[in-house]
Write a structure and sequence with these properties.
Low-confidence stretches: none
Distance between the termini: 10 Å
Radius of gyration: 16 Å
Number of helices: 5
Shape: elongated
Strand content: under 5%
Structural class: mainly alpha
Mean pLDDT: 78
Number of domains: 1
């Protein structure tokens, strides 16, 4: 896979993780301000599962390709930790006080991993 495709995957994964964070932060406020919105959103768990099915493969592929090239352990560590937290948050469902901070923390870890991966792959030290 070309380096341009790897860069694109990092950008997509950052965008999807950002979407997770925005959804997590904005949905409660939007539902309070617009009560009819809760009826239109459908299953929140279904949305989380759908988003996870997009985030997990794109993030895993982009991070694996980058780590294969630059061998940076921090990228792998942050990425794996974020993806595991995201899977746990979705698998555990609605845990009153833990789901939102866990999801936001996971998204932040994933964004940090992809931003570092992107920066390292663009640097001159990456052999590709």
């Amino acid at each position: 896979m070309s380096s341009n495709a790897s860069f694109s995957l990092d950008r997509v994964a950052i965008g999807l993780s950002g979407l997770c964070a925005i959804h997590c932060a904005v949905t409660p406020v939007a539902v309070v301000l617009f009560p009819m919105l809760s009826a239109c959103l459908g299953s929140d768990q279904l949305f989380h599962a759908l988003l996870l099915s997009l985030v997990l493969p794109s993030s895993a592929l982009a991070l694996m390709l980058g780590c294969w090239r630059h061998r940076d352990g921090w990228v792998l560590g942050f990425g794996v930790a974020g993806l595991v937290l995201l899977v746990v948050a979705v698998a555990c469902g609605h845990i009153e006080y833990w789901e939102r901070p866990m999801t936001l923390g996971a998204a932040a870890l994933i964004v940090v991993a992809h931003a570092r991966n992107y920066r390292l792959c663009r640097s001159e030290h990456c052999e590709h």
